[in-house]
């Protein structure tokens, strides 16, 4: 029953191994290089300043302040300063307690019981207790409420309040990864008062006004395209981890080079992410720190199986062979990445590498000819409108043109693109980036490839259906035998990679930069930046 906990522990333990080519990172370590490492023994070098304001440059506008209605990393980074869950991941992807002091599984892994911390209040003064846990989970999993993360909690059959500070989550079937799910950023809680406002008034905007959590910072304002501001919450329950700065301002800056220049001039203190083109030069700048480390992000080209162009396996294989991933990493990522040899990254527990689709234009064209597409076809490739995504999309379009696939690239703001993919209408090809926040294989694979996860509002935007995989997913998550589960996840990855529902691209390095006067932050392999203990010295 310890699968969920052992899964994240292994992520740190396997750090000394050279990761296989999965597309996200070629650093050879799964253990993040955190800022704390630089600070060891530096007490005499600088005093910790109390207060001050921190400004963070992020790559896009957030989509929501509600963790139950969020699927993007920018929103999650902001929310994590205000919202907390029962558990969370630390910088080594280990599960640590937050609002729960402890938990245990039932013998058959169908139930997980949490023992809650007492004396915690939300920012509005209301009490955090077992009833608040139940109300939040019941609200998000109710599909009538339209939360983007409802499917994430679909494993929950019932939430039982045992007493004021003990709550049991009952799964609809054995689920040995429940602790990992509850450590995900979307499993954070907001005040029951906010839920009641929404239930009483369907027009109440939880995305804008519902950010009432238990975290060290509280919501101040969100001005579109300008900033989101949070400020220190003076009555935070955890004195040891109380906010060190007075406020954090998050500024969406779409153009990567602009973010870098703003860091150089001191307009922002931290930028995430950082373009690879600037990474090497920033490493040598005395006033700036560059972070590089393994991440769980994986870039891919998704394809809509409702489009007959992608019915034939040979076409999908041809597309995989037609894209030079090593060239992409060298030319677009400036070497900061590795080729994807699975549908999940090596930093994800349960990863199993496969034989890479080697770049072979001659073979790719032969496969297209055999599939009856000697002259290719026209395609539309959706992408986010950030520099990083556009560069990948344009590179892929040039490559696919070599086998007659005439690709038109269409760029959208990230929130708009997510809405289009969730709607499941008009989708052809798209550039995707996936990172399982649970740190384990089930959430790395099931949301994108299970038959019951197709749109609307689910991640299987390609409408990929494989009944063999559906059975294997259920077998893996329900077994109490960890070795058996890992064998099944390895088989799942082999089936997916060989069936090629994606063009598997790369895993980028996690890259952020900050001023040398900023301390106390770290980056998870998921790419989320933990800012709660940030301080300026």
UniProtKB/TrEMBL annotation:
SUPFAM superfamilies: Periplasmic binding protein-like II (SSF53850). Keywords: Signal, Transport. One of its GO terms (cellular component) is periplasmic space. It comes from Alteribacter keqinensis. This is Glutathione ABC transporter substrate-binding protein. Residues 18-46 have a biased composition (Acidic residues). InterPro entries: Peptide/Ni-bd, SBP_5, SBP_5_dom. GO terms for molecular function: peptide transmembrane transporter activity. CDD domains: PBP2_Ylib_like (cd08499). One of its GO terms (biological process) is peptide transport.
């Amino acid at each position: 029953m310890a699968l969920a906990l052992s899964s994240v522990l292994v992520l740190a333990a396997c750090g000394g191994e050279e990761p296989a080519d999965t597309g996200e990172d070629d650093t050879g370590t799964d253990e993040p290089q955190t800022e704390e490492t630089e600070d060891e023994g530096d007490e005499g070098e600088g005093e910790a300043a109390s207060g001050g304001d921190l400004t963070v440059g992020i790559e896009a506008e957030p989509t929501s302040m509600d963790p139950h209605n969020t699927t993007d990393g920018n929103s999650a980074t902001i929310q994590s300063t205000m919202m907390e869950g029962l558990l969370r991941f630390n910088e080594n992807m280990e599960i640590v307690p937050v609002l729960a002091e402890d938990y245990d599984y039932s013998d058959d892994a169908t139930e997980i019981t949490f023992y809650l911390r007492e004396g915690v209040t939300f920012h509005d003064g209301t009490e955090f207790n077992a009833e608040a846990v139940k109300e939040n989970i019941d609200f998000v999993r109710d599909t009538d409420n339209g939360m983007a993360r409802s499917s994430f909690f679909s494993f929950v059959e019932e939430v039982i309040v045992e007493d004021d500070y003990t709550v049991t989550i009952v799964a609809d079937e054995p689920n040995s990864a429940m602790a990992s799910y509850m450590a995900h950023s979307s499993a954070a809680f907001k005040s029951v008062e906010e839920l009641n406002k929404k239930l009483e008034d369907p027009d109440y905007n939880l995305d804008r006004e519902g950010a009432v959590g238990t975290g060290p910072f509280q919501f101040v304002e969100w001005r579109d395209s300008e900033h989101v501001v949070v400020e220190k919450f003076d009555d935070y329950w955890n004195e040891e981890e109380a906010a060190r700065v007075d406020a954090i301002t998050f500024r969406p800056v779409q153009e990567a080079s602009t973010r870098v220049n703003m860091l150089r001039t001191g307009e922002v203190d931290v930028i995430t992410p950082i373009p690879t083109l600037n990474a090497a030069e920033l490493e040598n700048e005395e006033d700036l720190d560059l972070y590089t480390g393994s991440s769980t992000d994986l870039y891919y080209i998704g394809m809509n199986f409702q489009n007959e162009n992608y019915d034939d396996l040979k076409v999908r294989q041809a597309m995989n062979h037609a894209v030079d991933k090593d060239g992409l990493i060298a030319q677009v990522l400036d070497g900061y990445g590795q080729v994807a040899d699975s549908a999940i990254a090596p930093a994800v527990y349960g990863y199993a590498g496969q034989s890479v689709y080697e770049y072979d234009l001659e073979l790719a064209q032969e496969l297209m000819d055999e599939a009856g597409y000697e002259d290719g076809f026209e395609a539309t490739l959706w992408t986010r409108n950030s520099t990083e995504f556009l560069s990948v999309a344009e590179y892929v379009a040039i490559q696919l043109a070599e086998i007659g696939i005439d690709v038109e690239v269409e760029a959208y703001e990230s929130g708009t693109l997510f809405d289009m993919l969730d709607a499941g209408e008009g989708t052809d090809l798209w550039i995707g980036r996936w990172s399982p926040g649970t740190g384990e294989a089930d959430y790395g694979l099931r949301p994108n490839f299970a038959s019951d996860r197709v749109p609307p509002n689910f991640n299987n935007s390609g409408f990929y259906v494989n009944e063999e995989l559906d059975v294997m997913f259920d077998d893996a998550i329900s077994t109490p035998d960890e070795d058996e589960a890992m064998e099944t996840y390895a088989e799942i990855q082999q089936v997916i990679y060989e069936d090629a529902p994606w063009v598997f691209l790369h895993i980028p390095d996690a890259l952020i930069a900050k001023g040398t006067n900023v301390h106390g932050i770290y980056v998870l392999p998921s790419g989320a930046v933990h800012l709660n203990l940030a301080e300026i010295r």
